[in-house]
Amino acid sequence: MGLESRFMSLPSYLRPSHAKLPPTLDAFRNPGFRLLWPANYFSYVSRWMQMALLMWLVLDLTDSSPSRVALVGFFGMIPLLVFGALGGVIADRADRRKVLLMSQLLNLVASLVMSALLLFDLAQFWHAYPIMLVSGLGWALDMPSRRAIVRDSVGYSGVTNAMALDSVGMHSSRMTGPILAGGLTALVGVEGAYFSVPALYLVAIAFLTIMKSPPRGAPAPQAASIVKNLLEGFAYLRASRIILATVIITVLMNLLLFPYMQMVPVIARETLGVVPGLRMGMMMGADGLGAIVGSMAIASFGQLKYHGRVYVAGSLIGLCMVLLFAASQWFWVSLLVLTLLGLGTAGFGTMQSTIVVISASDEMRGRALGVISIAIGAGPIGALLIGVLAELLSPAAAIAVFAVLGIVSLLTVSALMPEIRARMGQSVERSAPGSGASGS
Asked: Which terminus of the chain is more exposed, N or C, with fewer CB under 10 A?
């Protein structure tokens, strides 16, 4: 009996009865997805926990420098901009489960190095930057594979539900990671809390080791060069209006909305009087709570018809809430606003990859997701810019400026590219080039 068979035959909670599963949890009927989901979840938790802890470490060691704190996010995300397309090519050419395993091993090594620096009291604030750079490299190389393997596991008909449930894991990790980091920091300090990061990576690696690689929809293009594969990915993007609109909105959101996260610890400490610990962890994780609710709602909808409308509406809600967060002067109000912000970004985050996975053909799916990774790579540029603007103005003013620019830009794109608001089946048939308009 193989490892997967023995694993699936043991605890009943890992092999839920099909009859007892509500429609919201349809994807968990698939054995592969039942292993993939916790593997992704523990990977997400470790990443958010690591980012929160290193931001607090830099905050403490640099006496609340907004620009230096923002650099943690910059170095964690810049590999997506540089290597995102390469990750898409790898997703189309290699065994996606093995790609995930290798990236988690890379993350594990980086977290162990940082743990050693903290253990021997050798850590300086700038050490956070190369550690996040290595972690970001792993993220860039595996993100397209992580999304594409969801489609491999559940098939076309279950992809919206599975993506929504994966988003539940990702967003709940955004809540769990910082709150766990805050609670442990209050008990044992940042140094002691950090040792949980490599432990969580080990758990993710264990689930991926047990999981079998699901069948793929199309053979990997081994004969073509990597450069040719990259060029094909960008050509595919230009020919598909709905994927192009998705990429543009992804750039805008990562450039103008998500950099607010780099300023949360600074605002919490300087404006709201919150020190690193449980309350700061609650602030950094509040958007995750809202995103869980939003993702579960999307998972319950069944077969959506207008994915793009959910995508645009969620993005707009997120931008409006981050503008309110910039104006807040009270901890509990800020906590509520951040929770509502997460509710909106659930629509953005879930639909972002779902639209691409549904629209792209089997042989181009990884490369299309690789372009999305490049778009997400706009985040570090936003983190760098908001850090500089926060030094010149204030963290709250910098967030407000970014939010207003984001709202105007999003509404403009939605008006100029109506394909993003059309019914998915119709828009895909018109816009997706090559074989298989719907990607099935």
From this structure: N
